[in-house]
Amino acid sequence: SLPSLVRLPPGSLPLRQDAQTRLLAPAEADGVRLMSYGFVGKGASSGAVPAAVMRGPMVGKTVGQMLSGTDWGELDYLLVDLPPGTGDVHLTLSQTYGLSAAVLVTTPQRLSTVDVLKGVDMLRELGVPMISLVENMAHFTDDTGRTHLPFGGSQLEAVRRHAGLRESDTFRLPIEPQVGEAVDAGSPLQLLTSQSESAHALRAAARHLVVAIGERQHGAAAGGSGSHLRYDPKRGLVLRVLSGDHEGREFVLSKAALHALRGGAGAGDASAPLLDTVEPCETEAGQPGAKLYWCGGGATVVPLGDFPHLAAAHG
Question: How far apart are CA 57 and CA 92, in angstroms?
Answer without folding.
Answer: 9
